Amino acid sequence: MSFAVAIDGPSGAGKSSLAKKLALHYGLLYIDTGAMYRAIALYAMRRGVDPHDHARVIPLLEEVHLELRHAHAEQRIEMNGEDVTKEVRREEVGMGAAAVSSCPQVRTFLVEWQRSLAKQENIIMDGRDIGTVVLPDAQVKIFLTASAAVRAQRRYLELCEKGVDTTYEKVLALVEKRDYEDTHREQSPLCQAQDAVLVDTSDCDFDEAFRRLCSVIDRKRKDG
């Protein structure tokens, strides 16, 4: 494995946005593992399969071919040759991702791919179990979090800007449901690695969160 930064944390903590900026800042390859699980969920949903029905999801893995492409410092994910980068960000697909991610066969399918990517490049990878399972030997491990209320408010404002008709209460309920599923799943539940640095962004904006993460990475690199 080359140099690796592993960022874990709950949904809506800002992992992807911050990881993308950190990747540019440090010249690392950004890998969004969440998009991979979302793609599996999307494929299942398109085939009329409930993402919670693992017995029916598992056979679909043989039909799915995923590729990551990077263009203009942005990660694009292709599923069977189709760019699904935008579609996998839909709210319902995110809930489906939480369901398929608890399936051991799905995790094995994707973790092997994630580890192979880390061996080839200096990377920054974010997800739910990067520091604990996928890259336990990563040089830098960060557990990024914020209160459920703050994460829901951020997500609610994002949806409003996109013209989505919803309420803060509905978004909060989804955030709390996703948190419960992520932390209570039997396979690789969301938790902070023992050697990960906790960064709580409940009280700060994006720029301050970025500075805090840079401080952690710089300190770790200096200490060797």
Automatic annotation (TrEMBL):
Keywords: ATP-binding, Cytoplasm, Kinase, Nucleotide-binding, Transferase. The gene is cmk. GO terms for molecular function: ATP binding; dCMP kinase activity. Pfam families: Cytidylate_kin (PF02224). It is found in: Cytoplasm. Gene3D superfamilies: P-loop containing nucleotide triphosphate hydrolases. Its EC number is 2.7.4.25. Belongs to the cytidylate kinase family. Type 1 subfamily. Coiled coil: none annotated. The keyword Secreted does not apply. ATP binds at residues 9-17. It comes from Candidatus Ruthenibacterium merdavium. This is Cytidylate kinase. Residues 5-215 form the Cytidylate kinase domain. It catalyses: CMP + ATP = CDP + ADP; dCMP + ATP = dCDP + ADP. CDD domains: CMPK. InterPro entries: Cytidylate_kin, Cytidylate_kinase_dom, P-loop_NTPase. The keyword Transmembrane does not apply. GO terms for cellular component: cytosol. GO terms for biological process: nucleobase-containing small molecule interconversion; pyrimidine nucleotide metabolic process.
